[in-house]
Amino acid sequence: MSIIVPLYYLAAGTSLFFGIQAALLASYGYSRSLLTWFALLCFAAGSFEFFYGIYYSSSSFESSVQLLHLNTLAVALCFPSFVGFIGTYTKCPFTRHTVIVVALNSMLILLVDWRSEVSIRFGSEAQLHLLELPWGETVSSIRGEASLGRYYLHSCSLMLMLWSLWRAWSVRKTDSHRSYLLIAYLVVLLVSILYSIAVESGAFQSVGITGLAFLPLIILMVVSMAKDLRQLLVQYGVQRDQLQLERSISEMLKVDQERLSQVVAQSPSSIHLIDSEGKLIQKNHASRRLWRDFAEHGDSFFSKSPWKQLRLEEVCREVVDTGKNQSQLLSVPSSMLQGDEGKWLNILIFPITGADGFNDSFAIVSEDVTRQQSMESALKMVAAGTAQGADFFIEIAQQLSILVESKAVYIALFSETEGKTHFYTKAFLVNGIARENFSGLTKSSHAQLALQDSISIYPADLQARFPGDQLLKAYEIDAAIMLPLENELSEQIGFLAILDSGVLHSMDDVVPILEIIADRVGREVQRLGAEERILRMAYEDYVTRLPNRSMLHDHLVELVRLSAKNRRQAVGYFLDLDHFKTINEALGHDVGDEVLRKVAERLKAYISDDIFIARVGGDEFVLIESFAPEQDVSDAVCQRATDIIQALSQPLELGDRIVSLGTSIGVLKIPEHAANELDILRRGDSALFKAKSEGRNRYEIYDPSMQADVDERLEVERGLRLAIEAQQLELYYQPKVNQQGQIVGAEALVRWRHPVRGFISPASFIPVAEETGLIHLIGDWIIERAADDISRWEQQGIADFGDVSINISAWQFARPDFVRQMLGAIDKSKVKVERVSVEVTETAILRDIGSTKVKLGLLKEAGISVALDDFGTGYSSLAYLKDLPLDAFKIDRAFVDDLDSKQTAGLVKSMIAIGGHMGLEVVAEGVETQQQFEQLTQMGCKIFQGYLFARPMPFGDFVEWLKKD
Questions:
Q1: How many other CB atoms are there within 10 angstroms of residue 576's CB atom?
Q2: pLDDT per position as a tens digit, 653-692
Q3: pLDDT 10s digits, 321-350
Q4: CATH 3.30.450.20 residue window(s) in the chain
Q5: pLDDT tens-digit series, residues 812-855
Q6: pLDDT at 294
Q7: Where, residue-wise, is CATH 1.20.1070 in the chain?
Q8: What is the CATH number of domain 556-706?
């Protein structure tokens, strides 16, 4: 008759069953921690019982040994599970730490067990015995010499029982019933463990019963859970009745609450409800449309943006304390609001009384009153008339933009040129931001709508009416309001244009204000015109329309004052036209005057607006260029003087005559060379005389010893020689990208970082290097360093991003061994030749076309691509573009900077088209704005280089940039 084995199987099944039940209850959150440990203990105990059931019925020694190992595994799992369960059951504060220690001990037991031949319990001498129990059942069991591991396992079991009894005894004061039940069970479990120890030691011919002792624990837990569930059911019944009562009351209030909620939610004004502690209760849809609000339900309202910056907390507390409403008119910036524009808001704060009669919350209602404020501001500004000149027009345009809430606004005046009516803007705003003024032909554009006697409103379909109008297309304009500007004779002199992309609705309320503004603008235009005519008569040269000597005098007086006050510096360029007297005498004074006008036009076209230019008499001109106090002007002075000479050296067309001129320039630094008006004029003339005496068509910088410039160049030369030896030169890399912004190559640029003078511009030392022959050493160093850097990138696992282009000077390119030296440097660095490309200037390739073709052919044959640098700035010719083996050319940044000019834009578009037809890659350099990038992309350019994408970077920064890209 079998009893023990089935009983163990039954116990195992029971343990596993209740373990699963406990795990399910724990997953639903009921006593999660306790039931989780209980489920783990049930699984471990069930495994222990199951393995013992199989062990007692095993018929082979080997299988019995494996079952003993599994049984030991179950025991090892029981230890931490039992500790976790007892600790949680008795609310032990250090349960977690105890479980960790016991778990580590269990791992040690398992390690020893699996390294033992006959488990941790026996030594090497062990045998399988059959034991006949009193009721006739026969079970198998291994008997043999006890090992130290058995005693350690038994000691751990007894220590676990003692710790458990201590924990059960410790809770007797808080829960005596639970304490005594647990102690009783632990005593039963302890007795079963002692009995099993006695059986294993041979004191009894029986079987262990420890596994069966887990059944009382399961019964104990089931009874405890049943008791807790009964209490929960009672509580649930009470709560259900209470909930039913509350639900019936809630239904009575629901309709009223929904009505009030809809009023708040659908209100066109922004509404926030805040409790007395400053926490947000509710906000409506209008608030989300108006505010860039980061406060959500339950947040501390005044700690969130934008309410923290508005500082309304004290006002709101006063409203709650006093029960009185408060209202504030605030100008709120766009950073706090949805959209790109600031607004005027009327903020109303009022208290909300609770059921107890006290103010327990308050509301903040925000209403947009920007339109009303704009009307008031516009009328006040027109009445005050404080702004002057260009500021006046910009201020008026800003008020109009806000008043009508339009996309674009401009103020324009008419002018007649060659029998055609043009308009030019005095102020131009898009989305409230001032843009560069522009001009255009009135006919066939929307500006012809302004040729009316009164205000004209075109609410829609403007693009359909003027399909060729580029302004309308560029800014997606489809509606307009046009207001004529008139002078004192009621003659139209210009117009106000208010443009928008949407449909313009009724403007009846603002039309009277717009007419007042138009009248005020017309009077301001007349006043400025009168002032301009008076100033022109006093300060303008009649022949050239340039400032005259009187205006130069005033300008120098102000310049000297600013120089003394703010340490501002400037440079004066004193120009004298070479051989002008000969032209004047040979061809007549009328031709001489025309020459002067052409020179003035060329100078005005060349220089920027911030450079002062005057004709001081005869063929003499003076240019004054201002600089910041800390700015180093040395390089800028030389470059500016050289550019002026080149600009005026170009032939002048005078009808059927072509006249060639030169110019001599005396350069004076202010206040370094002169600190008052008389010294400036006198010493400027001295420098001019020096330039003319040295051969004309040149410039000289004033210096009492005339040695400062020579010393400077010698210092640069000496420093440059040392820089090459002391490794003060370094290479920077500027990426070249495609239309998607992905890198397709880079340009290597040399930089000199002087230990004392700091960064020295290449424009300063490259010319000196070319004159002294040091350019060859620098050029060789650049090629070697670039090749080494490419090799380092490959070693660092940087992916091939394209070629690295190296600028080759004309002197370096002219060397007979240039190609051999370059290929040798690349080969030395063990990099692919295709990773290197060269950029040469037109000056370099045109020195000797025959030699150039040979060298470029050798480079192409080796795999090095060649690009023509600064295309269009020299003597670009399609003939040599076609004949020379070029791969690409670069559009100079001067063209890119001037893309706003239609003429320049046309030239650039032609260059790109030429490159495409000739199979040449076209690179646009100096791209600094998104507008330039988009224009070039539309023209068909595919490769770009410039600050918009990345500045030149040293090796390390460039590597980091590559990794990010």
A1: 20
A2: 887 777 888 899 999 999 988 889 988 998 898 888 888 7
A3: 888 888 888 888 888 888 777 888 888 988
A4: 267-368
A5: 888 888 999 999 999 999 999 999 999 998 767 766 677 888 99
A6: 72
A7: 4-229
A8: 3.30.70.270
Could you say which architecture CATH assigns to the domain 4-229?
A: Up-down Bundle (1.20)
In percent, the amount of the chain with pLDDT more than 90 equals 26
DSSP letters, 631-674, are ---HHHHHHHHHHHHHHHHS-EEETTEEE--EEEEEEEEETTT-
CATH architecture of 730-963: Alpha-Beta Barrel (3.20)
Contact between 52 and 70 under an 8 Å Cβ cutoff? The reply is: no
User: CATH 3.20.20.450: which residues of the chain?
Assistant: 730-963
Six-digit token pair at 444? 């066939």
Using CB atoms within 10 A of its CB, is residue 148 exposed (0-12), middle (13-18) or buried (19+)?
A: exposed
Chain center to CA of 286? 30
Within the chain, which residue ranges are assigned CATH 3.30.450.40? 374-536
Helix, strand, or coil (residue 79) = helix
Residue 781 CA: distances (Å) to CA of 731, 775, 786, 817, 845: 10, 10, 8, 15, 22
Question: Do the Cβ atoms of 164 and 95 come closer than 8 Å?
Answer: no
CATH topology for 267-368? Beta-Lactamase (3.30.450)
State how far the alpha carbon of 592 is from the alpha carbons of 234, 358, 621, 659, in Å: 116, 93, 15, 11
Say which residue the tokens 């504060």 belong to.
93
List CB contacts of 657: < 8 A, sequence separation 6 or more: 587, 591
**Which 8-state DSSP code applies to residue 147?**
P
How confident is residue 708, by pLDDT bands cut at 50, 70 and 90?
low
* Token reading at 944: 């770009």
CATH architecture of 374-536: 2-Layer Sandwich (3.30)
Give the number of other Cβ atoms within 10 Å of residue 535's Cβ. 12
pTM comes to 0.35
User: Which residues pair with residue 734 across a beta bridge?
Assistant: 747
Query: Which tens digit of pLDDT belongs to each residue from 748-797?
Result: 999 999 888 888 888 878 877 876 778 889 999 999 999 999 999 999 98
Residue-wise burial string across 126-143, b where 16 or more C-beta atoms lie within 10 A, e elsewhere = bebeebebeeebebbbbe
CATH 3.30.70.270 residue window(s) in the chain: 556-706
